[in-house]
DNA sequence: CTGATATCTTACCCACCGGTAAGAAAAAAA
DNA sequence: TTTTTTTCTTACCGGTGGGTAAGATATCAG
């Protein structure tokens, strides 16, 4: 099972020899930190945990990162990068506001099943210093504003029923963000299944359309 | 503004004198612990924080509770109690599955704006010992199963469009649980506003129904 | 081969946290 | 008052975690 070793070697092996290759070692730290962070949360993940899993000692980590916060902030930035990619993709791909929301939900749900993506929403602002917190808040507001603008666009173009876009955005974002709380990579639900049904449920709702055999809907122009 | 002092005195004053009144003192501990827990999360909330806010010293707390986990678990139980109340209320109040889900969302959203309710979803299982974790998981599964049963009921009675009830329940529960992450008691959004729009959005979706002045829907029995 | 540089380890510091031991001070019971 | 019980404080312990100092070891440039 030899993958492309130059791209994604097992993080454990990145520190196997002391060849000078800071980039891949940094990457290895980030990957295992993200993994551990998801397993244990920021507060319970110690620098020793990270070091142990990489078969090195704690001080070695400080050769590549300033401190614990620095590591997790970097994971966070990678995750945000994934999200911003999909946001830009949606802006181009024109359509109704509703279609944009649907595309957003589908893509965002998928990102929430990727480790770095999950880190974004698992990171508690309370664990950060005020500088880092400010940065994180900026990202979050950007994403929230974007979703809200899609909803408002939909209301304007008639594809979305009038509503408070702020609350609607919180509702959708909440459902999506919570994915990282229950999703298990080896679980029964595949990312694709989740993304598809989320996109459907969050835009169309649960309610059955009146198209049963007993009832028929007729649209009449006036 | 004198409230009923026998019911809810300021937690700070509960320990003002040493009169023997364990019940209200316990309650005061729980309230401030819940408050602090919401402000700082379990890991960053120290027993000293709680004691300081009550104007006592740390060991005094151990007169009323066995340990830190015991305190938060008690807060958790109070919150779960609130949720189970609404669940039972909905079971009686008969109606379609969709109506039950709607009622659930409305009530649950409201509970998520009450401190003890918020504690339920902010409590990270990873912070607990295995015994407590087992208890917590039991409660959560009970709630999840209940919501899922409402959805399945709705699919059976035709009020809800066929879907994977598991994913749908995760979606709805996620939106609701996430409320405790952004809700601020003194913020712009009132609990009632939130509950009402959540109930609407999560059941009906965002999509505009074709009921504009240009179109009219007619239901015809066959 | 040699000196310079990057990499990593051993040993340590300090702050904090959950929890306890032992006893003082107040309140209730006698 | 005296005794007993509850309530609360001072002082402390063991463990852990982030982070650093200082030096050993390997890699690389020349």
Instruction: Specify the structural class of chain A.
Output: mainly alpha
Radius of gyration of chain A over all CA atoms, rounded = 21 Å
β-strand amount of chain A: under 5%
Percent helix of chain A, as a range, is 55-70%
| CATH architecture classification of the largest domain in chain A | Orthogonal Bundle
Number of domains of chain A: 2
CATH superfamily of the largest domain in chain A: Tetracycline Repressor, domain 2
The pair of chains with the biggest contact is: A-B, 59 and 60 residues
* Main beta-sheet annotation of chain A: none
CATH class of the largest domain in chain A: Mainly Alpha
Q: Which series of helices and strands of chain A comes N to C?
A: HHHHHHHHHHHE
What is the CATH third-level topology name of the largest domain in chain A? Tetracycline Repressor, domain 2
Distance between the termini of chain A: 65 Å
Average predicted confidence as pLDDT of chain A? 89
